[in-house]
Amino acid sequence: MKPRIEVVGIDCLMLRLFDEIDEAHMPWLLAATRRLREAFGAALLDLVPSYTTLLVHYDLSQLDDDQARQRVAEALHDLQPDASGQARELDIPVWYDPSVGPELEALGQRSGLGTAGVIERHSARIYQVFALGFAPGFAFMGLVDECLASPRLQTPRTRVPAGSLGIADRQTAIYPLISPGGWNLIGRSPTRLFDRELDGYSIWQPGDRVRFQPIDHAEFVRLGGDDTPYEVSR
């Protein structure tokens, strides 16, 4: 790991730790996150991890650029990956169905797996939460099986229902709120992902491991899911 430091604001540094997305990088990113929080202490305003980077937002009234860089150097000196094995594991119920996942059948045809095969293949993996962003509670997860990888829609939808599960390239995510979006929708979850009572307003954090559990329509409704077909809710 050879981190590069970029200035992205008068009080923000971007640390580029890797050049490619890889699940094996997460222990390093988690270790760096912990060390940076300790090094900056009260001078840290925000720390945002992503696939390959860490954004450090610090208090300019407490540190100047040189001092911030020094703390970064101290934090990353002799860094070792986080091998604690204490990542949380979350099971998220999903109703995979064409009525709420308009790309499900097309993905089944394109992959040659059929609808049932897509559901089986997508739900068989344990996904890593790489980053949070776009909207509160929106977790970028991966990596999906290569046969399910799908480019974003050429024309994004103006309104994607909350709980919609989608795929973009080799990423997968659930829309926590009604919002625009261009991911390929394959199902919907009844789980509440955005909660003001939670730390960070989200049920998950970078480093969490997630498995999607297929459920039927009756269970989806019982858990409070909105089964309004996409065509109507749009």
From TrEMBL:
**Which SMART domains does this UniProt record tie to the protein?**
AHS1 (SM00796)
Q: Which GO terms describe its molecular function?
A: ATP binding; hydrolase activity
Which terms are listed as keywords in the entry?
Answer: ATP-binding, Hydrolase, Nucleotide-binding
User: Which spans are transmembrane here?
Assistant: none
Lineage, top-rank taxon, reads: Bacteria
Residue ranges of every copy of the Carboxyltransferase domain listed in the record: 3-204
Pfam families linked to this entry: CT_C_D
Gene3D superfamilies to which the protein is assigned, alphabetical: 3.30.1360.40, Cyclophilin-like (2.40.100.10)
NCBIfam families per record: 5-oxoprolinase subunit PxpB
Task: From the Swiss-Prot or TrEMBL record, give the protein name.
Answer: Sensor histidine kinase inhibitor, KipI family
List the source organism. Answer: Stutzerimonas xanthomarina DSM 18231
